[in-house]
Design a protein that fits this description.
Distance between the termini: 48 Å
Radius of gyration: 18 Å
Strand content: 15-25%
Number of helices: 5
Number of strands: 6
Order of helices and strands: HEHHEEEEHEH
Shape: globular
Helix content: 25-40%
Length: about 140
Amino acid sequence: MAKAHGMRWTQQRNRLITIMQSSEQRYVPISDVDNAMRIYYPGVSHNTIYRNLKEFQELGIVEIARRSGGMVVKLSCDPAYQHHHHFICQRCGRVQEIKMSADQLAYCEKQLPGAKITGHSFELYGICADCMQRMREKS
């Protein structure tokens, strides 16, 4: 995918993806990714890592989000879900994709006469089924 967009595929970029794969279904702080990269490439600059993540985002390889603790990143969800939302477990951090109907945006626009919605962000937080099961087993 990267080569098709004129991006040279390097060992550093490959390592960056490998690091991301270790947390495939979770957002991780970009600073953690930066620290992991420095184990393999001590001389790599922060700017290089952040620029590569931004380029990966533009190609749809990763998703970057802002959290109260800073910027986080994860590998992109299934490309079949062009537009999707997330359920994020507050115990284990696992991210699950949620499909929502396109009718919901129209429903919101009806509540805002004369306005035009140009984007949105929507996430659900809770405890995933696996964590709920572990909690039941403990009690």
